[in-house]
Amino acid sequence: MIKSIHHTSYTVRDMDRSLRFYEQGLGFRRYGDKTVANRLQEVITGVKGAKARVVHLQGYGQGLELFQYFAPQDQRERAVRPCDVGSSHMCFIVEDIDRVLEHLKALGAEVLTEPQIVEGGPNAGNRYCYFLDPDGIPMELSQRAQG
């Protein structure tokens, strides 16, 4: 029986750049930071010769784990597109979507579209937009409708 979700994990190219983005931009707090290169890491991930820096963060009741792999060297340079099978994203509820977007852009986010207003259904009036973190990982911002 599943009790809860422990964390979401993303692989990044430059851990220090990503930590600036996730800590300063998105408000996560770091609580663990280590480098792993052992058989257990290979077995768990299925990646032969895996060597990675792993940082654990916490925010908004959500655990976040960032990996920067040093080995193997044959990694893809960009995350999958939002339409590709296996793609995922986190959605952050914000009070001022325009202000948050400007802050994230200054830290390397790429905005895919300006905020759009949902016209119907249970989210009518909400403003949404997708953006990419500095490694191209899809994320979403949501501002609830006023009133």
Task: Tell me about this structure.
The protein is α+β, with helices and mostly antiparallel strands and 147 residues long. The protein has two domains: 64 residues, Roll (2,3-Dihydroxybiphenyl 1,2-Dioxygenase, domain 1), CATH 3.10.180; 54 residues, 2,3-Dihydroxybiphenyl 1,2-Dioxygenase, domain 1. 19% of the residues lie in helices and 35% in strands. It contains three helices and nine strands, in the order βαβαβββαββββ. Strands 5, 6, 7, 8 and 9 form a five-stranded mixed beta sheet that branches. The chain has a four-stranded mixed beta sheet with strand order 1-4-3-2, with helices on one face. A hairpin with a 5-residue loop joins β8 and β9. The termini are far apart.
Report a brief summary of the structure.
19% of the residues lie in helices and 35% in strands.
Q: What are the key terms here?
A:
147 residues, alpha+beta, 2,3-Dihydroxybiphenyl 1,2-Dioxygenase, domain 1, four-stranded mixed sheet, 3 helices, 35% strand
CATH architecture title of the largest domain: Roll
Report the end-to-end length measured between terminal Cα atoms.
Answer: 39 Å
Uncertain spans: none
Helix-residue proportion: 10-25%
Shape: elongated
Rg over CA atoms, rounded to whole Å, is: 17 Å
What is the average of the pLDDT values?
A: 91
CATH class of the largest domain: Alpha Beta
How many strands, what sense, and barrel or not for the largest sheet?
Answer: 5 strands, mixed
Query: How many DSSP H or I helices?
Result: 3
Number of strands: 9
Residues in β-strands, percent: 35-45%
Helix/strand order: EHEHEEEHEEEE
Structural class by sheet pairing and helices: alpha+beta
Name of the CATH homologous superfamily of the largest domain = 2,3-Dihydroxybiphenyl 1,2-Dioxygenase, domain 1
> CATH topology of the largest domain, which one?
2,3-Dihydroxybiphenyl 1,2-Dioxygenase, domain 1
Task: Write down the domain tally.
Answer: 2
